[in-house]
Amino acid sequence: MNLPLPDVPEVRVVGLPQLTQGFDLVERLDLAMHLKVHGPLAPCTGERLAAIAEEISLRGRGGAGFPFGQKLRAVAKAAVRRGVRPVVVVNGSEGEPACRKDTVLLNRAPQLILDGALLAAEALGARTLVIAVTRNSTEISIRAALAERGLSDRRGQPLRARVVRTPERMVSGEASSVIRAINGGPALPPGRRERAAESGVGGAPTLLSNAETFAQLAVAARIGPRRYRNTGTAAEPGTVLLTLSGAVARPMVLEVPTGVPLRYVLELAGAPPVPQGVLTGGYHGNWIDASGAHDSMVSRESLAAVGGALGAGAILPIGPETCPLGEALRVADWLAAETAGQCGPCRLGLPAAAGGLADVINGGGPAALEALREVTRAVRGRGACKHPDGSARFFASTLSAFTDDLAAHVLHGSCGRETTGVLPLPLPGYQEAQESIPSGEKILIDWTLCQGHGLCADVVPELIRINPDGFPSVADAVVPTHLQGKAQRAVRRCPALAMRIERTAGAQDGVPRPRRAELPVFSRRALGSGRG
């Protein structure tokens, strides 16, 4: 089966919409429609913005769940102590095959995300805003949204805003990977733990959170904490975005108040009445059984009480007709292939764990099961990034959730069911098949000046290679939009001034330039410096 999710699946809502308001009117809210639907956004002091985040118990919606107000204050404190301007980063890198909520927001409500990001930038006195995206559709949408507001990366602007493209990989969406990509490196974890609030983009204190978090902040700033808290539970007010896939009739992104029974959400998506299991939190999450799915509600606290996890909001039920261990093996193989390759637990441990699970399924017996458990224990807590820990959590949850099937495979060599492949995974070669948006520019080299230093190939190896004779070879292709920054740095680093970038004949921008609309004027105040 293995049908990847579309970029923008069906979107539905339970109760009154907040993040998805206006989705019933248009496919994408441009700035004019955004202001009609949501109304103007009043100025907000930094202290008040932090207080709003704390009053609504806003936590990051990318999976880690760190308190946003605490993060905001930490960045402000570091910026004041060091005397440098902080940076605001919207992490729209959604490389997990089971998640589409941020992609939906970036495609359909990009201005709501920018509202929250600009509020935070104003509060912190930031002069730089970066939006990291994964897919062509999200890059096109967010570039158009920035153009609608007259924002760009040109020098001299009060706020410079730019888009950075990251690969569609699990490890590329981690905060440290995004920051490393923005700094010009590969979109991989750096292998060392560093707090972005202290040192992030360009070494500056950096406020980084995912797209839904900034959209939630914008909603709360507009309607106020009291009205925001009227929706959802007292401990976790508001709504959440869920991506429902797996054994469902209609894969969808659903906006739902916290506290709604999970069984209702599954029924709405057309899941089996009694699922064999439900994977909560995505491929770094936990399985729960039918009883847990029936008794739990959509909230971090409720799902954790039955062994589940809200995580990044991915919910994946499977029916009784498929082998759950076979489904887990497909995901395990994908997780092993997503390794950053920078540490033993990731590079060696995850493939070994996937191979161990295959041995168990193929009748390896108790010895194979014990070997798998040993490898999983060895991987946990020793990786250079969060990918080994998340993957180990998935392995351990699989072994504890499907004990009957595990016993059947260990003792009898099979559970008697085929693997139907209901959990979504990318098609083979998906990374190589990704097409980038052409910028209309090409790199040219003046061979009368080139001295073969090779610095250009170090900066943008995607476009420039060094030939056996020591001189560069430039790809005869238009520079993709997401590599424009690297291409410009390569030109600037050439000590012989032999490189230049030129527009191709008849080139058209790949991004629409919509009419600008009037925006509310924000005052620039540091956290704690203005009246609430």
TrEMBL record:
Q: Does the keyword Iron-sulfur apply?
A: yes
Top-rank taxon: Bacteria
Taken from the record, one Pfam family name reads: Complex1_51K
In the record, the note on similarity to other proteins reads: Belongs to the complex I 51 kDa subunit family.
Q: Which PANTHER family does its entry note?
A: NADH DEHYDROGENASE [UBIQUINONE] FLAVOPROTEIN 1, MITOCHONDRIAL, NADH-UBIQUINONE OXIDOREDUCTASE FLAVOPROTEIN 1 NDUFV1
Q: Which InterPro entries match?
A: ComplexI_51kDa_subunit, Nuo51_FMN-bd, Nuo51_FMN-bd_sf, Nuop51_4Fe4S-bd, Nuop51_4Fe4S-bd_sf
Swiss-Prot/TrEMBL keywords: 4Fe-4S, Flavoprotein, FMN, Iron, Iron-sulfur, Metal-binding
| Cofactor(s) required for function per UniProt | [4Fe-4S] cluster; FMN
* Name of the protein in question: NADH-quinone oxidoreductase subunit NuoF family protein
* Region described as Disordered: 505-532
SMART domains assigned: NADH_4Fe-4S (SM00928)
